[in-house]
């Protein structure tokens, strides 16, 4: 939400997955769109959120408000920002922040976004969090005994100069995580953003991955 | 005694556990068998218990993580790993051969040292090309197969470039073995493949002289000596040692990784081609530096090593590039194009080894007048002449004249033996494509090369009609 010209279509797909049992958590932009009179963001973001709010129907907004900030299953915690304070949208961009989030999650695996770059944090022998920049497509063994936090990256607006969408696949049975990047037609996405009259900065970032 | 008696003679996850064949400080090794597996196997069981430590667990996890990702004859084949939290073990192929420390009857003659050293360098090159750095290379961790191939065992302290380094913060534990570790490892750096080349230098020194260049330091300050101290040159111990061997050993032992060989393939190459080793001051060095000069190195080392420099960590960053030159036709119009292309390729590599090869027809053994050395010398001179326009430092180049009837076969075999990364050779002229020799060399090399091949063609417009 707040980054593209197709929020309704995207939400339809996400809701369909959610109906089939997918875990979906609320992000800060989702929250802003679903909450009237939200004034937390800068000018560009505020304009995009205004636009998105107008573009979505009531059912979409109800779906967004219904999303939890944090979801747990037996082995993993899913959260948009930090599990330590999900509503404060803290950036997990350091070993210290990763440590706090994983400790609050209290699961072997914590998955998050918010920071738009893929990073895997893992605990060493003394329990300290160590950051690792994953290589694309290389499965990483992640023993549950250790404690891990994966920042899976951003599908729509990665910020490492590569516009391809970022995601990660975790096979917790096999105790393995693989980070991926996949190219998509970001030129078309940027074209639609411009055509919709959304701020130019958003189109530019989608095209360039910055 | 504890676990040894408990395990031997039992079955574990389908493996029949036999006798304990080795009892080390970190782990015990058992001979094991499994119904379906046709080769002998070893089970490594870490010695947790009394001295259990988190670091040992990490080292065990590291090996279990890295071994399955390595392939080829230079590492033991991975079979299975037990769950680290319940029954930790690793089962691998049992290598038929002897560990290098048992073979050591140093000092060995130079050609023996070179043969063993080249085999270890091949093995290092093989794992480095698979993104792995051993970081604990020493004679007990090298097993020589009966066919002379070196196998690197015990990857408990290894580093994989694309996986999280569980041991990154375990500096004291993960530093390797005191006599063999590199200066950068002493400082806690675990991501430089050239660290293994330093350890290889220590092994070569040991094989050639029977002595350790830095002794066996027991303290951290003793370990730090190698950041600035230069060892006694090996020729000071063994008077008759050839200069090329001292050159290779001391280049491996350079405290600054940037001044060492930049690739294990380059070390293997020099050890297999001693006459091609470019001799520098290292080759003739007769004693250690005087104290004052060592002290100034020590002073500089404090800064130099305070922050490890960015190293070339990509495998293949220091390629071996081989160019096939037709020395029989030195004025062939294709030669300048071949030189231009080689120059372009080299400009893309910060560090490289260029190997120029000419193939000449094998001398007729029945011809009494055929002086065997003459064609070799003539063609070597032509190769050196060909190289002149490229203006490359001598230590990065070597020239080789192969005598063979099957030129393509000889080139491919040479490339395979010397870990060549890229072969550059000329394409036949359009008018010559019908001629069997040119066509068979270019196409047979590209079809059979163990690496990439770059075929250079003169643009059509400039070809003679």
What are the salient characteristics of this protein?
heterodimer; A: 210 residues; alpha+beta; Purple Acid Phosphatase, chain A, domain 2; 2 domains; six-stranded mixed beta sheet; three-stranded antiparallel beta sheet; globular; B: 465 residues; alpha/beta; six-stranded antiparallel beta sheet; five-stranded parallel beta sheet; 16 helices; 16% strand
Please, could you describe this protein's structure?
The complex is a heterodimer of chains A (210) and B (465). Chain A is of the alpha+beta class and 210 residues long. Chain A has two domains: 1-68, no CATH class; 70-210, Purple Acid Phosphatase, chain A, domain 2 (4-Layer Sandwich). Chain A has helices at 7-19, 28-34, 43-55, 58-66, 95-105, 186-195, 200-208; strands at residues 70-72, 76-79, 109-112, 119-123, 129-132, 140-141, 148-151, 165-171, 176-182. In chain A, strands 1-2-3-7-4-5 form a six-stranded mixed β-sheet, covered by helices on one side. In chain A, strands 6-9-8 form a three-stranded antiparallel β-sheet, with no helix packed on it. Chain A is globular. The two termini of chain A are 17 Å apart. The mean pLDDT of chain A is 92. Chain B has 465 residues and is α/β, with parallel strands linked by helices. Chain B has helices at residues 2-7, 54-66, 100-103, 110-128, 183-186, 194-209, 220-224, 234-237, 243-252, 264-272, 281-284, 291-304, 334-347, 373-388, 407-417, 436-448, and strands at residues 11-12, 15-23, 27-33, 41-46, 78-81, 90-93, 97-99, 132-133, 142-145, 150-152, 159-160, 320-324, 353-360, 397-403, 422-426, 452-456. In chain B, the strands form four sheets. In chain B, strands 1-2-3-4-6-5 form a six-stranded antiparallel β-sheet. In chain B, helix 4 (110-128) runs antiparallel to helix 10. The longest helix of chain B has 19 residues, at 110-128. The N and C termini of chain B lie far apart (86 Å).
